[in-house]
Design goal:
- By secondary structure, the chain is α/β, with parallel strands linked by helices.
- It folds into two domains: 80 residues, no CATH class; 360 residues, TIM Barrel.
- Helix content is 41%, strand content 11%.
- The chain contains 21 helices and 15 strands.
- The longest helix is centred in the last third of the chain and has 25 residues.
- GO terms for molecular function: glutamate synthase activity.
């Protein structure tokens, strides 16, 4: 008979416990048994404490065994490489970056002695210029108002740093509860992910951005198509502040998905509006629209059904002519999103094909620049806010992204780390040791909501506070004042350039009168179509030539 996984996780603790009891009982016959009982008793006491405490989820899930990991983590860098993974491409995020998040989440002083450990003469090194006239910022609760359309009756003040899209189903119930409770306390938003609004999103009462994916979860008919009545019911909840249509996701753009029947529990079915125990399909493309013009009409429909809340979309940039077609549709119809969230190709996911993760989708820096430049060139930038996501975990990450043209940032990794994620890369097999990315109640149930929600709150608060300190040192009073001239990059060992010279920025309106000089606009803007996502004729002819 196969033992359940939870029994195997507790086996070392139980062996120590029973061994200690047996050794103590036999110690009256021999001193050797007493000597054996002492270490076993110590381990049993340690394991009992692990099970009862609530601050460390890994210790609760792996009593006694977890301490071996902590020991290996504590070994100096000269030996650590022989025992645990090193900070190389094997892991998508470095241990140093995780430590910054952990310190801020635990509200630990993150000051370091002996200066920078980063090689400042290395190519690609970036920094922010300071001012000889620093300022003091009184209000560090930085926000941007979203709601630039005339029919947006309920604009929303977005924090400069928020929780990116992660669905219930991908994350455990307790992880969702902790994230939303932290967002409630810190007054920032929590993106639901395409898995819709679950009871765990609702319970703490934190602000929600409801993401609508191609599966229309939470607003779908039995055949999987969009249901306006179900949408209106959820969208008009006071807790829902904005609606986000997911066109594509940075980590796996153009890729649908399937939630196997075995994973469709009653709670997941309730949130998504699907049938318990049946496969759930997320198509690669939407069925509610198929052209840029139809998307603009869909945005207008959602805004009306929601009672006038801000409606936008999230996308990873792929073919530039498709993005240009969206902007041309905005110009032709005078209908437009209130916001656009740019998801970089380096974005994370629970599971995706390796080629999608590494080789599909434009990186965040290039994507934000293209979106910002296009809106500026079309005289739409002041009407549409831009959010950005893609490995944003620090104040400097936020500052450089805003300098490129974004208004705010979203993060997923950092908030997962604040929940206790150790990047075990087991999100896809339901064996997450920290109880974050699992639907196994014996694992996820060990994540203490009260403790971890405080860490979520601390991480966001301390990161925004660090951003405020950077701005003060630069002589700026608000993130909106950040420009490309404030961020520097070492492009070679002996050459440094500010973003304002490293990247090209369009002047307002140049796309409307044909004056844009950037190659991508000269090549694709005039040929992009508002009535189709199809490639321009010259691209199709080029393909035909290659096929001959």
């Amino acid at each position: 008979m196969q033992l359940p996984a939870s029994a195997l996780r507790y086996a070392p603790y139980l062996l120590c416990l029973f061994g200690a009891l047996i050794s103590l009982a036999l110690s009256c016959f021999s001193l050797l048994w007493l000597l054996a009982a002492l270490p076993l008793t110590a381990l049993a006491i340690m394991g009992t404490w692990d099970v009862l405490q609530k601050r460390h989820t890994i210790s609760r899930n792996y009593p006694v065994m977890a301490h071996f990991r902590y020991f290996l983590e504590s070994i100096g860098p000269e030996l650590r490489q022989y025992f645990i993974q090193s900070d190389t491409d094997e892991l998508p995020f470095s241990r140093e970056q995780r430590n910054i998040v952990y310190q801020r989440a635990k509200d630990i002083l993150d000051k370091k002695p002996f200066g920078s450990l980063i090689p400042m003469n290395a190519e690609g090194y970036e920094w922010m210029n300071h001012s000889l006239a620093p300022v003091h910022i009184l209000d560090k609760n930085f926000r941007i108002t979203v709601g630039g359309h005339s029919n947006t009756l309920k604009p929303y003040d977005v924090s400069v740093f928020n929780i990116s899209a992660m669905s219930f189903g991908s994350l455990s119930a307790n992880a969702i509860l902790a994230l939303n409770a932290g967002a409630k306390k810190g007054d920032f938003y929590h993106d639901t992910g395409e898995g819709s609004i679950s009871r765990y999103h609702r319970e703490p009462g934190g602000d929600l951005v409801w993401e609508i994916g191609s599966g229309y979860f939470g607003c779908r008919k039995p055949d999987g198509s969009f249901d306006p009545e179900r949408f209106a019911k959820n969208a008009q909840l006071d807790q829902v502040k904005m609606i986000e249509i997911k066109l594509s996701q940075g980590a796996k753009p153009g890729h649908g998905g399937i939630l196997p029947a075995a994973k469709v529990t009653q709670e997941i079915a309730e949130a998504r509006g699907v049938t318990v125990g049946e496969d759930v399909i997320s198509p690669a493309a939407h069925s509610a629209f198929s052209t840029p013009l139809e998307l603009m009409a869909f945005i207008a429909q959602l805004r009306e059904l929601s009672g006038g809340k801000p409606v936008g979309f999230k996308l990873a940039i792929g073919h530039p002519w498709e993005w240009f077609g969206l902007v041309k549709a905005m110009l032709e119809t005078d209908e437009r999103p209130d916001f656009i969230v740019v998801d970089g190709g380096e974005g994370g996911t629970g599971a995706a094909p390796l080629e999608f993760i590494n080789r599909l989708g434009m990186p965040m820096t290039d994507a934000v620049l293209l979106v910002h430049n296009t809106l500026v060139g079309a005289n739409l930038r002041d009407k549409i806010a831009i959010g950005a996501a893609g490995k944003v975990t620090s104040a400097f990450n936020i500052a450089r992204t805003l300098a490129l043209g974004a208004d705010w940032c979203n993060g997923a990794r950092g908030f997962m780390f604040s929940l206790g994620c150790i990047q075990s890369l087991s999100c896809h097999n339901d064996k997450c040791p920290s109880g974050v990315a699992t639907q196994d109640p014996s694992r996820g149930g060990k994540l203490d909501v009260a403790d971890k929600s405080e860490r979520v709150y601390n991480f966001q608060r301390n990161t925004v506070l660090a951003l405020a300190h950077l701005l003060e040192a630069a002589g700026l009073s608000h993130p909106r004042q950040l420009g490309p001239e404030h961020i520097m990059r070492r492009v070679t060992k002996y050459e440094v350039q500010p973003y304002s010279e490293l990247f090209q920025f369009l002047e307002p309106g140049v796309l409307l009168d044909g004056r844009a000089e950037l190659h991508v606009f000269q090549r694709y803007w005039a040929k992009a179509r508002a009535d189709s996502f199809s490639a321009p004729d010259f691209v199709l002819k080029l393909r035909e030539t290659k096929l001959r």
